[in-house]
Design a protein that fits this description.
Elements: H1 2-7, H2 9-23, H3 33-51, H4 66-93, H5 98-116, H6 120-140, H7 147-176, H8 181-190, H9 195-212, H10 219-225, H11 230-256, H12 260-281, H13 288-306, H14 312-338, E1 340-341, E2 344-345, H15 355-358, H16 360-374, H17 380-394, H18 398-424, H19 436-454, H20 456-471
Length: about 475
């Protein structure tokens, strides 16, 4: 009994943090104590999660191994990075960050549960909690009247897809007499699949497609992210992503693997549609955050494409894409936080005109991160696109290779428009002085990218243990 509480300590720390933020109002918080408390809570929970990474916590509900540890570390570090970047925004705007910190702790708790879940009820509950936290983030970020419409649409859509997942959970329980992944996997492995089994599994998959933000369920997310404040944009680009992908991968490998052949064509369709929507969407506007949101849809489509077979080599390629996407997107978010005019962070592309003359280092690194997302050699993103093309060629999917290369031209065009604005358009306004911490984060980011470029085989080799853990 005592051991169970000890192993649950990472989650208990987050729960205590939620109770503290529920009981205490940090209004008129000039010292930004809420951010310091939130940082300490997340850091302590991360420390305990690393120590007890291989403990199941609750037998039958959760399972923990090296696979879950990697995604937990990604989630926690993303949350801490977003917290650090956002503190300056709330301080400049003289707005209390109480609600933001509360939502962030809730999100990390839900993400942690989703990553370690080995039970469809826990997966369902943690997904619902994470969607609710996302909704609160959007709602608290309303700085324009038309944003509330997108927030309501996101809430209604979330309710609909959670309802589908609830129906799917109880259908699978009716068939297998268990909510446990292993028991459901055993049932699917031994029984002939029928319409009920297929429908229930499809409902769960559709729920994850919506939560991740893949096409055609991307609209609420991309439209809303073009209007929210920068801390919320950075949160959506980094924190929920690792949790959703970890939960989806475990769901397929631990439970739905006998149905992979049945869903193979569906996976390819969603992946290729997301790649096209993301690539074309980046060229369709002048809002920098909306452009990067569509760029994320493009990247998620490539990751989804790699998971069409759920073989070890394709999953390895998906891991590489995901990690390098998060690395580059984090760098882009840091750059966006460093560029502001009169205390206001920028939305429209023309507001960045001539940024290279005032902020040459930030502009150069922003360009590097963009080209890394594109897969331009010798940047780390090239390792991602090389893994994808190599995997597709191994399976003989040459038409998919041609398709991806074609879509890359759209992405390249959109990114070059950004570079053109930064370097070749006349500066219109003076940018505010960037915080020294921004430059420190960018230096750390450059070091990580430099190490990956020099020793790419380390990344590939170290991802093998994740696959072994995921399949084990």
């Amino acid at each position: 009994m005592i051991e169970s509480f000890i192993y649950l300590s990472p989650l208990l720390v987050l729960l205590v943090g939620l109770m503290l933020f529920s009981a205490t109002e940090f209004e008129n918080d000039e010292q930004m104590r809420c951010f310091k408390i939130c940082r300490n809570i997340l850091s302590l929970s991360l420390f305990l999660a690393v120590i007890f990474y291989n403990r199941p916590m609750i037998t039958g509900l959760t399972s923990a191994n090296k696979f879950t540890l990697v995604f937990q570390i990604i989630t926690y570090t993303s949350a801490l990075a977003v917290l650090y970047l956002s503190r300056k925004w709330f301080s400049n705007m003289k707005i209390s960050g109480h609600k933001y910190c509360y939502c962030l702790i809730t999100s990390v708790l839900a993400a942690d549960l989703l990553i370690i879940s080995h039970n469809i009820l826990l997966t369902l509950g943690s997904s619902l909690l994470l969607l609710f936290s996302n909704f609160l983030m959007m709602k608290n970020a309303e700085n324009k009247k038309d944003l509330s419409i997108n927030v309501r649409v996101y809430l209604i859509s979330s309710i609909c897809f959670v309802t589908l997942m609830c129906i799917a959970a109880f259908l699978l329980y009716y068939l297998s007499n268990s909510f446990d992944y292993t028991a459901i996997l055993a049932y699917l492995d031994t029984q002939q699949q029928d319409a009920i089994t297929f429908t229930a599994s499809a409902m769960f998959i559709l729920g994850f497609i919506f939560m991740i933000g893949l096409a055609p369920m991307h609209f609420c997310l991309t439209e809303t992210l073009g209007k929210v404040m920068l801390p919320v944009f950075a949160y959506f680009m980094l924190v929920p992503t690792a949790a959703y992908w970890a939960g989806f991968i475990r769901l397929n490998m631990k439970m739905l693997s006998p149905l992979i052949n049945e869903f193979h064509l569906f996976y390819i369709t969603i992946a290729l549609l997301s790649v096209a929507v993301g690539a074309i969407g980046t060229c369709s506007g002048q809002n920098i955050r909306k452009i990067m949101a569509y760029s994320a849809v493009y990247q998620w489509g490539i990751i989804f494409l790699m998971l069409q077979y759920f073989t070890p080599d394709s999953a390895d390629a998906a891991f590489v894409c995901l990690i390098l996407y998060l690395l580059a997107m984090y760098g882009i978010c840091v750059c966006l936080f460093s560029l502001k005019i009169k205390g206001e962070y920028l939305f429209m592309l023309n507001e960045f005109s001539g940024a290279s003359t005032k902020r040459p280092y930030v502009s150069a690194l922003f360009t590097v991160f963009l080209f890394s997302l594109l897969g331009f050699p010798p940047l780390p993103g090239f390792l991602s696109i090389f893994s994808v093309l190599n995997n597709l060629s191994m399976h003989g999917h040459y038409y998919q290779i041609v398709y991806l290369l074609t879509m890359m031209f759209f992405i390249a065009y959109a990114y070059l428009q950004i570079v053109k604005t930064f370097y070749f358009e006349t500066k219109q306004s003076a940018f505010d002085r960037a915080d020294w911490g921004i430059y420190a984060l960018l230096c750390i980011q450059v070091v990580f990218m430099f190490l990956i470029v020099l020793k790419p085989h380390y990344l590939l080799e170290n991802l093998n243990f994740m696959m072994e853990a995921a399949l084990g």
